[in-house]
Amino acid sequence: MTHLPGHPYVHRQDGELWIEQLPLAALARQHGTPLFVYSKAAMLAALAAYQRGFAGRQATICYAMKANSSLAVLQLFARAGCGFDIVSGGELERVLAAGALPSKVIFSGVGKTRAEMRRALEVGIGCFNVESEAELEELSRVASAAGVAASVSIRVNPNVDARTHPYISTGLKDNKFGVAHERTLHAYRRAVELPGLKVVGIDCHIGSQITDGAPYLDAMDRVLDLVEAVEAAGIPLAHIDFGGGLGIDYNGDRPPAADTLWAQLLAKLDARGHGGRHLMIEPGRSLVGNAGVCLTEVLYLKPGEHKNFCIVDAAMNDLPRPAMYQAFHRIEPVRPTRGNAQRYDVVGPVCESGDWLGRDRELAVRSGDLLAVLSAGAYCMSMASNYNTRGRAAEVLVDGDRAHLIRERETAQDQMRMERLPG
Ligand SMILES: Cc1ncc(COP(=O)(O)O)c(C=O)c1O
Ligand SMILES: N[C@@H](CCCC[NH3+])C(=O)O
Predict the structure, then answer these.
(1) Side by side, which strands form the sheet with 2-4?
(2) Does 336 sit behind a cis peptide bond, omega within 30 degrees of 0 on the bond before it?
(3) Which of the residues bear the PTM N6-(pyridoxal phosphate)lysine (predicted)?
(4) How far is the C-alpha of 183 from the C-alpha of 170, rounded, in Å?
């Protein structure tokens, strides 16, 4: 039995790929393709690494649900005691439906609407992570009108380079996120003056798929400088939230393990005398990314003069990361392979040249074979679309030797349900 890199719960046995105690080919036969399959044990193991890292500390792990917003996944994390980091009213409704405690929900995002603020106040979320001075003013008006106090944390943009893809770097001055480091103290002074606000914390999030601990340590230093300045101005901060962003192994990436990273970060926190504070973090990808695979069937092989194409039934609408960020996902045959390997671009049926899942992959495949696109638990199904009027894929959650269908395949009728013909 051999485990797949980065995927502790996916292994090969007699040439066949399994997830936990189930062969992936059987799941594809039963539910069709494209199919997302998640391992419950892998998600809980990823969470346990964070929980180990915070043992003995006062800490709240708020799962950044944008990574995978399936209700079943949310329920799993809610039952395991997690809070949630949300970024929209839609996400709020989903976490509530999954059984989250509103008091453990924090609301990030640069463009919260008045309606979203009102609803979040109505259900009593734990904290608004405010991203601009204008938002602070608006939240004050909305909360005052509702006759309640909104708990706020200000998201600092620490101007630290997370050394990741530019589209998923968020902690640089040029990024739209957070309040500039040098404006933050001013924003806190304003927050305590405004009615309807209660300052409870400070937060930052520097980017995603971070594979190196150094940017976190830099950001922590900058945030702690601010904590000290804000408290020196007489404004106490009950919690510090360091965001998410820890990367996963897509292609030999070697991010630190969550507990190792947090041992380093906590050592710094202790050294600066802040170890006793309530800590919050917002991991997304590192909790779910390598807990999932996307199964797809080879439709056609199309040899060409310059390139061979392996046309599969999953596409950029199901798994947009390669098209959006030129991201690499490993692609593995699900069953033992026969014949000679050839080099293929693995592409989907969507009418875009950007519709590719992998480039220049050595594969020994025939039409009808199944492939598994790895590291598909994060930012795949949650970013899926209906482009080309393709239905969203089905999802299965595997728990040991049991598989639960947690989302049915979407049909064209499902998609048309919201539409009305004018005449
Ligand atoms: C505010 C905020 N928190 C948490 C996350 C989760 O990031 P990741 O999935 O990289 O852990 C993100 C996404 O980058 C985010 O924007
Ligand atoms: N969607 C991105 C991550 C975005 C993180 C959100 N701030 C990805 O797939 O890598």
Answers:
(1) 2-4, 7-13, 16-19, 22-23
(2) no
(3) 66
(4) 17
Cα 204 to ligand 1 centre (Å): 10
Residues facing 363 on adjacent strands:
342
Which numbered atom of ligand 1 lies nearest the CA of 244? Answer: 11
Ligand 1 center to 164 CA (angstroms): 13
Q: Whose CA is nearest to atom 9 of ligand 2?
A: 379
Question: For the chain, what percent of residues have pLDDT higher than 90?
Answer: 91
Compute, in angstroms, the gap from residue 30 CA to the centroid of ligand 2.
31
Q: How confident is the model over 14-60, as pLDDT tens digits?
A: 999 999 999 999 999 999 999 999 999 999 999 999 999 999 999 99
- Residues 22, 401 contacting (CB under 8 angstroms): yes
185-243 pLDDT, tens per residue?
A: 999 999 999 999 999 999 999 999 999 999 999 999 999 999 999 999 999 999 999 99
108 in contact with ligand 1, CB cutoff 6 A: yes
The mean pLDDT of the chain is 96
Ligand closest in space to the Cα of 381:
2
Q: What is the pTM of this model?
A: 0.97
Structure tokens at 328: 């690499």
- Whether this model's ipTM surpasses 0.90 comes out as yes
| DSSP secondary structure letter of residue 206 | -
Q: Note the ligand closest to the C-alpha atom of 209.
A: 1
Atom of ligand 1 nearest to the CA of 379: 9
Domains belonging to the chain, first-starting first, are 2-39+289-416 (2.40.37.10), 108-283 (3.20.20.10)
Annotated active-site residue in 62, 294, 310, 351: 351
* pLDDT score at 141: 98
Please give the annotated binding residues for pyridoxal 5'-phosphate, written as ranges.
245, 282-285, 379
